[in-house]
Each structure stands twice: as structure tokens, then as C-alpha cells.
Amino acid sequence: MSDSLPLRDRYLALIDEIVETTLKGKISSVEQVYQMLVKGITSGTGEVFELALSDRLNVHQGQVDSEKDELKKAKATRSLRAIKTIQTQWQRWQEQNKATEAIASALTEITTASPNERLAAFVRVIDPNQKYPLNLPQLQQLSKSLQQFAQVDADLQQFSDGITRGLASWQRLQDNLLSWMYEQRESLGFGGVPGERGPWASWAKQLNSELPQALFRTLAMEESAIQFAEQQRAITLKDWVEMALILQYLQRGLINWFDQQAYDVKAGPNLSISTFLTFAVIWSQLASGFQTIGAAYSDACSQIMLQILRTFAQRSYFPLYGGIFASFSGSYLRNALDYLDEPLRYVQGTQEKARILTLLGYSQRALGQYQRSVDFHQQALEISRSAGDRPCEIANLNHLSRTYVQQQNYAEAINYSQRALILSRQAGDRTGEANALVNLGYSEVMQAQQLENLEPETYESAINYLEQGLKLSEKLGDIPSKALCFSSLGIAYLVIGQHQTAIKYLEDGFKIAQFSGDLYLQGRNLAYLAEGYYHLQNVEKTIYTGSLGMYLLNQIGSREWRQPAGLLTILQGQIGTEDFQKLLQQHRSKIIVLIGVDGYDYIPNLLEIYKQDI
Q: Relative to the CA of 246, which of 115, 138, 165, 472 has its CA 20 to 30 Å away?
């Protein structure tokens, strides 16, 4: 077999040689076939060999199928059997050499890219969504391989050094990845009081490199990652590569651990969701800040942000019906998800984009940005329909129904919930059906109240839909949908004046929302519980639930905090400020368990802010 032949012809000749040698009886084992492949195939040329193998497989299969002569057919059959042996050993070769292939491919992509495109090439190389993502040893080997080109191009030395430093920093962090959890027992998420406690501060202490250490201190203090990036005028490729690898492996390490805590109320999917969102927002903010430093750094940050969202959107627990999660709270949440909006505008319609727009849509609804919510959901609806993502399409019909209720456009809310119900039943999407039943019942209750329809049959029909939705969500074991069902039933019974029944559903809704980590539903249930207790003239519980609901809704930036604030202000006027404060003080210990001392102390301030805005 001549090495001077074109590569495809050379591989065809190799296959023919193995077949012919097998037919002559000179090859007696599959191991000999494998050794001939090892000697004959050049690393990094697997696709060419696959095409040559496919060509020969088709030829020999055709001969077996068409040959009439028994002797010739027997020979063709033996040849086909030899080809299939080559195919099996080729798969073995691929499996054993995929690491070498992946490193060779990564090296080629970085070294052949133009200087302006190298950073983008590196980001593609470290993308965890690849078929064979590079692991730590492979990245270390890539770093060594890049050093061979360092004398020709200094940038390649920067990439090599950045990889080496990034992996060394990750090794230091890995052993203490979760130590901050034991220092911060009351909160496992990324929210909380800025300062020396929490994950970022803990990780910053373990780093030696200036740039990532400074970034982590910035995040620990909940200061702007945008401003941080804008100040990095002296950043080098080496610095950026190290920072990228540290952040990427931190994110992966956390998610791997949280994913293993599926039955832990305080961890599990909620913290995985929080981690995906937190790191996506950080990269988006860095992209915004690096625009003043250089387009290559900014674009690379956006690229990583989109990689994170792509991975997230493919997870089974992606929250098509979730809300604002407890571990993604505090001032860091406010408008943080807006940073994901701008980069997504430049991405073509994909299933992943539709799912992220769904998340943005219902988050904007929780914040009271109803028209933005509608816009996001309409975009997601169109993209998911084009992408054939039926569960996402149904989810957006349901979310549009919910948002139109908030806008008091009940006719449209009923229209979208009916469409969701029909489509979910056609598709067999039981979660979508449960949500559609709840939305339809809830929309009809609110419309009947608006029209001052006092006919009991109207409410009975609507509440029947709600109860069907609850039964289905309980059967499915769908916690977020169940929380929404209890909440909606509670509000419905409150509307028709059955306050004791309403309170039962709202209390159950609050407990389940705590379990699912949905801060918005927690606050909303508490706000309506306060109304229920107020109608029953239970002043103590009105103050307790109203104060908590007001604080939680304010914490996530929802405009709905004003609803319980208004009720508490009226009550304060009725019983007097002094008695109000005494009753609030009686519940201090219970309130502190849920929102801490700072949260409790902030309740009177919130009431004053509300009064000043009236």
C-alpha cells in the first residue's frame, strides 16, 4: 500500500488488503485485523476512513444480494463477513483512540484559526455539549501539545499557560468545593448577606491568581461583574483562559453534586437550576463588561453563556413551569435575568432558545413586567412550534393564559388555557394538561368575579377544572404544578367568599411552594392568606402572613408586594401602630426562621415605603 496515494484511496486499499488477506487464510484472529488498522490509520482522519469503509460495505453487500453463481456468492459472503469484522474493530479503535482524536482535533482547531478567531476556537474546544468533551487529562495534554507551537506563535503559549493555571486552580478548589455550605447552614444558594461568607468568598481564599480571585471577591460582595470586566484593561489571553476554566469546572462540580441530591429538600434540582442560571448571568455580565476591552473577549463570554443555557435546556428538570427559586434570591436576582435577554437576540430560533425564553417570560411575570412576559412567551411559542418541541409549546400557551389573568384580560386567558388543554390532550402531555385545567378554572373564576356573575353554577364549573388539575398533578407527583393548583384553588375560594376553605388550600400551597423553592408562589400564597385571615378577623395571623408575603415578594422585585402592604397598612390604622408592633413582635422567632433577623427588621421599613408611595 503506497503512502503517496490520496488518503481515501489509501484507506480503500487498506480495507481491500485486509479482506484479501483474510480470504487467503493469512489472518486467523480479530486481533490481527485490529493491529493492521492501528498501523494503517492516521490519527485525526477517522471521517475519511469511515467513508471508505462505508463504500466497501455497500459494494460487498450489493454483490451478496445480486450474485446468482453459488461459488461467487459464497466468496462475496466471506468478503462481507471480513468487512463487518473490520467495522467492529474500527469501532474498537475509535473507542480506544477517541481521546487522542479529540486532542488532535482540538489542537488543529486552535492552531489553524486566525489570531482573531483563536479565542472563539478555544471556547468551542471546551464546550461540554460536544459528543466527546475534553476531560482534565485531555486538557492537560492539549496544553503540552500547544507548547510545541509556542516558538512560532506567542499566543499559543498564552493558551497553554492559561490551561495549566486554570486546571491547577481548579484542583485547589475541588477539595473545598462545598465547604461554604457548612459555614452557611441557613442558606444553600447564591443569595444571602454579602461579605465573607458564602461560596464566592470561600473560593476566593483558596486561589492564588489575581484575576479570578478579584472576580470572586466582587461576586461575594454582590458588586457588578460588568464594572469588574470594564476595569480589566491589562487582561491577557492567559488570564482569561484560566478564569474560563475555573468558572466552568466550578459550575460542573456544583451541578454534579446537586444532581445527586435528588431527594434533598434543600438541594437537588432547585440548586442545579440556580447554578445554571447564576453562571449564565455571570458570563452574560462579563460579556457586557468586556465590550470596552475587546470584542474577542466579549464574544467568547457570550459563547460560554449560550453553551451553559444549551446544556441547561436539555436537562430533564428544566423548569418549564417553575418560578423564582429560593436559592437565586436577594438583590442579585433583580433584573439579573435581563442579562440573558440581549445575547439571546442574536441566536437563531432553536429548541434551547425557546425554553430559555419561556423561563424569561414567567420570571418577568413574577416581577410584574406583564407585557415583557407576553412578548417572551409569544417568541417562545413560535420557536417551539417550529422546532417541534410540543411540551414547550404547551407550556407557553399556559404561561400566556396566566399572564393575561394578571393583566385582567380574562377572555384571552381562557382562550389560551383552552388551546393548551386541547393540545396537551392530543400530545399526551399530562403536566401540560394539569396546568391547562388549573389555568382554565382560575381564568373563569376571575372572569366571573369581574362580570359580577353570582350564579353558583359558574363557579362550580370553574372550581371543577381546578380540582381536576389538582388530582392530575397529585397523580403525576408534579410538585410545581401541585403548588400552582393549591394556590389557584385558594384564591378561587377566597373570591367566592369561602374563606376557611381558601385558607386550607393556601396553607398547603405555601408548604409545597417552600418544598419546590418557588419564592414567587410562597409570597403570593402568604399575601392571599393574609386576606383570608383578615376576613375571618384573625389579626395575629393576618400580620404574620402578610408581613412574610410582603417581604418575600419585595425581595424578588415583584410589584405584588404592595398588595399585602396595603392590607397591613389598613390593619395598622385600625388597631394602632403600637398594638400592631406588639403582635408582629410575638411572631419574631417564627419570622426569623424564614427570612432572618435582617428580613424581620426590614418589615416596618417596607410599610413606610408603601405609605410614602401612596
A: 115
CB 499 within 8 A of CB 518: no
**Type of residue found at 83:** I
397: confidence class by pLDDT, cuts 50, 70, 90: very high
Give the lowest-confidence range in 9-18, 183-192, 319-328: 183-192
Q: What's this model's pTM, rounded to 2 decimal places?
A: 0.74
Q: Which helix (H) or strand (E) holds 252?
A: helix 237-259
Residue from 420, 422, 441 nearest 377 by CA: 420
Return d(Cα 64, Cα 74) in angstroms, integer: 8
Q: Which residues contact 225 (CB under 8 A, 6 or more apart)?
A: 215, 218, 219, 282, 285, 286, 289
* CA separation for the pair 523, 557 (Å, rounded): 11
- Residue 330 has a pLDDT of 40
3-class DSSP state for residue 325?
strand
User: What angle do the packed helices 588-613 and 577-586 form, to 10 degrees?
Assistant: 150
pLDDT at 381 over 60: yes
User: CA of 279: how far to CAs of 84, 133, 244, 247, 307, in Å?
Assistant: 47, 19, 11, 8, 11
